[in-house]
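User: what does the whole thing look like in 3D?
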Amino acid sequence: MEILEILECSPPPAREPLDAERAAAVARAFKALGDPVRLQIVSIVASHAGGEVCACDITGAFELSQPTISHHLKVLKDVGLLTSERRASWVYYRLVPETLGDLSALLTVPATA
Amino acid sequence: MEILEILECSPPPAREPLDAERAAAVARAFKALGDPVRLQIVSIVASHAGGEVCACDITGAFELSQPTISHHLKVLKDVGLLTSERRASWVYYRLVPETLGDLSALLTVPATA
DNA sequence: TATCTATATTGATGCACATCTATGGGGCTC
DNA sequence: GAGCCCCATAGATGTGCATCAATATAGATA
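Assistant: Here's the predicted 3D structure for the full assembly of 226 residues, as structure tokens:
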């Protein structure tokens, strides 16, 4: 565990430029985060104890129609930033830490040589 | 330096949800990264030794018109992801590591309690 | 000054998307 | 089964934006 943390702390390797295909895939995720409402949705889920939020709580946090929030949730699901699970009448949303982590790593700038 | 590295390695604190105003500001940056061409531009600059790339080299990397690339560079500058410096006839672009770092940190998920 | 190169700006165009209202479907409770 | 609540889907609409051709600007050179 200690070693892993140290490894994670080491400077990231210099990367080759993204090819067009990979760039398109990654850009889809960033585009999903490029809407203020979706960014707030992710933020709400991230800061919620238990890591799980009911769709109704998300809808209630905005002055937008329920279908609009539902649309944004679908976009975030489609790019792999959220997962959902239905329990009885309610749908609960969670973050996908792997996706967040991948994006975060991509933004980590190689040491300015 | 050692201590700073350790601090940077500590798990990120749980965050309050972004308010609408901050979300709008951050979303602008993510939206800029949400275009495949702009993402590749950032990637090209990031992976370039010296951290500096001539606009002409960026334009040459795409099968897009020069004004289109110029437009994308302006977008990336406006959100603080790139800076530019003119030297003679050429304009050189650099990343802004602080902005990249801020975005990266925002995507670091708090430990799933 | 005239001109060539590198970059930025302008204006136009077609498509993508955020939002709404209306409706559909799934799952309770009476 | 009837009615109600939660969520998703469908269709319509106005705005935003990626792209281009044309043009303007800045700097070098002759």
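In plain terms: The longest helix of chain B spans residues 20-33. The two ends of chain B are 30 Å apart (CA to CA).
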